[in-house]
Amino acid sequence: MQCFSEAEMLRLAGSAMHKMDTRGRRGTEAVTYEEIEAMGVLIDCCGAGKLCQQAFLQKLGAKAIEDAEILDD
User: Fold this and answer.
1) Which of 26, 35, 38, 68 is deepest in the core (most CB within 10 A)?
2) Are 42 and 13 in contact (CB under 8 A)?
């Protein structure tokens, strides 16, 4: 993953959001890898990264949560 300045992260994430807001599902096809990375970094910087990961692991089940807790140590 590349390093972003705060302004670059916001610009790229905003560009991705604009594509999806204006074109719906078709807009997701136009989102670049850079924009996806910027959105991920923004989610993590806002403090929601861990929450998103926990929700994903809960969907996978208890075994996935145990495995992830082992990796956190």
Assistant:
1) 38
2) yes
Residues 6+ apart with CB under 8 A from 65: 54, 57, 58
Nearest CA to 41 out of 20, 10, 17, 19 is that of 10
Asked if residue 35 is part of any domain, the answer here is: yes
- Tell me if the pTM is above 0.85: no
- Cα–Cα nearest to 13, from 40, 46, 45: 40
pLDDT tens by residue, 21-31: 999 999 999 99
Domain presence at residue 46: yes
